[in-house]
Design brief:
Length: 263
């Protein structure tokens, strides 16, 4: 495996069996994520985007093919990954400070390092003054900021993100997106990001992958030739952004047409 590859999925297929029936969720998926690369996956509902994340996170075994992380087959939940999902999954009995500090405590960092790093991350996501608040006292956007700060505290080599901004309103999504892209550009770690929002995918990514309808497979890939650092919102008015957006929409429209014909 190339030293520059963080993740490699080779001819990956996943089949679910329920009540005696077998369903092919994803078929022959070939996908790579380089070290430091931000890759987003878009596609119709039910195409297997989240299934791919479950395989990479070690929560689901492939039926066929192989998933390699740093050149090694994924068999259990890797320590070097960080996961952020739609549900912020904060511990309700812990304060903002203690939720952010948790990965550092698990990693047996010194108390001083835990406190300093947690303080820096809370400041980075704009939650100074809320350190002793509990999740139930926060808005959805604030809870998402805590979840992102906690993910960065873990400092994984690969972030797996399943529509992390999905539950947020449009304005909050932009605000959180702006903060997230600035945080990510500081650390430059690999990201596999699942989203239904094409604009979000382009604004964040180095590459956007389009999956077909079920059984999901890779239909197309689009490089994003937009310089970094880049503004999460204003970049949408760039002519290159508009062109990539048009190409991705056309690819998804073709998938819809193919689905209609096959019915």
């Amino acid at each position: 495996m190339s030293e520059n590859l963080k993740l490699k999925l080779s001819d990956l297929s996943v089949r679910y069996s329920t009540k005696g029936q077998s369903t092919l969720a994803v078929s022959k998926v070939n996908l790579t994520v380089k070290n430091g690369e931000f890759v987003s996956v878009v596609g119709p509902s039910g195409c297997g985007k989240s299934t791919l994340l479950k395989v990479v996170s070690g929560l689901l075994k492939p039926s066929e093919g192989q998933a390699l992380l740093d050149g090694k087959e994924i068999k259990d939940v890797p320590e070097s990954i960080g996961m952020v999902f739609q549900n912020d999954a904060l511990l309700p009995w812990k304060s903002v400070f203690d939720n952010v500090r948790l990965p550092l405590a698990i990693a047996n960092k010194s108390t001083q390092e835990q406190e300093e790093r947690a303080k820096d991350l809370i400041q980075m996501v704009g939650l100074e003054g809320f350190e002793q608040f509990y999740p139930k006292q926060l808005s959805g956007g604030m809870r998402k900021r805590v979840a992102l700060a906690r993910a960065f505290a873990h400092d994984p080599s690969l972030y797996l993100m399943d529509e992390p901004f999905g539950p947020l309103d449009a304005q909050t999504r932009v605000t959180i997106g702006e903060e997230f892209i600035k945080m990510w550009e500081r650390v430059g770690k690999s990201v596999l990001f699942i989203t239904h929002d094409i604009e979000e995918a382009i604004a964040l990514s180095d590459r956007v992958v389009v999956m077909s309808g079920r059984p999901g497979t890779i239909k197309a890939e689009f490089k994003v030739p937009l310089e970094r650092p880049r503004p999460f919102y204003d970049i949408r008015f760039d002519s290159r952004f508009k062109e990539i957006q048009r190409e991705i929409w056309e690819s998804l429209a073709d998938i819809h047409k193919e689905s209609e014909v096959s019915r």
